[in-house]
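thought: fold this chain, then report.
action: predict
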Amino acid sequence: MLRACVLALLLAGGDAASLHAQAQFPYDRDLVLDTRPMRGGKRVPVLSVESNGHAQIDLWCKHGQGDAVIAGDTVTILIGAMAEQSCTPERAQADEDLIAALSQVTGWSQRGDTVTLVGAISLRFRLATN
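observation:
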């Protein structure tokens, strides 16, 4: 009986440690939007946040920098200046929609290789494997 209690405590401690490890935001990793490329291209939006909060934001056409303030499971993304490349009206609108969604993010979670940014619209990203 005592052995079972000790084993249960050790397992619970191991679970807490793994939960703590997963609670760390995946800094310095490319987060690739979980979507298919738009017709006529291979590009999909990518977000990368450095441990100092500096963010690189590459959308369908626009790209630029920003900042992410992360505390626990809360996050605020501040979009900086974005450079535009010429693109179709469909891609330009998708960029505007994604900028609006990123600006409204308030939280995040991670399950395996999937990072979800939660806000008015939840955005699902996959950790890049390369």
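thought: worth noting. Residues 26-127 form a domain with the Lipocalin fold (CATH 2.40.128.270).
final: tokens above.
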